[in-house]
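Per reviewer request, we include the raw input and output of the structure prediction for the construct analysed in the revised manuscript.
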Amino acid sequence: MLKTFLSQLPDLYQQKICVGFSGGADSIVLLHLLTQARAHGKIGALAAVHVHHGLSSHADDWLRFCQQICHDWRVDFSAERVQLNPKKQGIEAAARAARYAVYTQQNCDKIALAHHRDDQLETFWLAALRGGGLRALAAMPTERALNEHITLWRPLLSFSRADIEDYATQNRLNYVHDASNDDPSLLRNWVRHNMQPEIAQRVPQYDKHLLASIALLQDELALLDEIIAQDWADLHAATGQFSRAAWFRLPQTRQKQMLREFAQRHDLGTPRRASVNDFARVLREVDANAQWSLPHGQAVLHRGVLLPVRHGFANHWAWTQRMGRGSLKNIALEMGLTWRGDAPEFSGCIRAAQRDDVMRMEVGRKSVWQILQEAGVPPFARAKWAVAVDNDGMCVAVANIRSDASLQGAMLWHDDLLGFQAA
């Protein structure tokens, strides 16, 4: 197994690899293989992270075991204790979400996980039994982006559970055993210990056929992702925002795919199929304003642009929570804003816009509400907009949009607000 593993390994000498390390047979074998790869000069820095879920009375013992293994094998070790909230998603999903949250915080280039060929088959069956679509049925890719900095890497997908157990035996590797993996009340365990053995008796070569199907599904998914990426770029080509006009020109199946992509990319939650169909119909019928309720917020159509609005979207903007008084130069920094150009030296306050705010114009005055409206700011965002007001109560700056002549061209600025301005 080691020879095959090393032959499949890319050159990772310039990268830092961090192993998701439970202490079970799979992760022990993966870590041991990577230490051998390090000895052969195939990888450079190697680390391991253990996630302590607190679900077992043996969890502290497992942590100490993992720590000792890493000490013995000269692998940098860290551990994170997590608290699970299984109410909405179940214990397995909650534990997985907690692990992946820890993985995204690691200082590394790749997170290496010990999923193997049998795990791949189980993942397919679970997806099928739960009604998953193409992305779920395609199971686990060898690599995928975990975030913009870290790649999730599964180098053992070509090896079986038997291969891994044989390697552990041949190399006299100790590992921990989690008894919960034997509990048939958990669906994955039932698939592993009951369903798959029965299928194997009826169709001895089923695993090879199913793995071939998964490979085809992954190819089809890669093609779909290319189409999605191109459609997404086309929808944003003109202004950098989701254009309804460009969306309308797509075939209906791709229209619905773009709505799913919109919800996913903006962390608005996974919409139900019926919800996608309903909002797609609304978008085809109206070109004015429309709203789509999603698990974590809304999609709002305003002036032909679809805007993402997460629940509490403005809560982290300091100026919506309090009013800052003092030097406008200093207060802007304290409130998380910047000045483009020479910051004003006089005093005033920075806060969220109010309906009765007014600004001096070249001739007369104008309502700040009207300025926001003319700039394409949708109604829901106007009361959250940052403004600077002088000590006489006159608005001297509407963030990202306009400044009074007294500021000599300086513009109050916040990048987040760009997402709420119709281009």
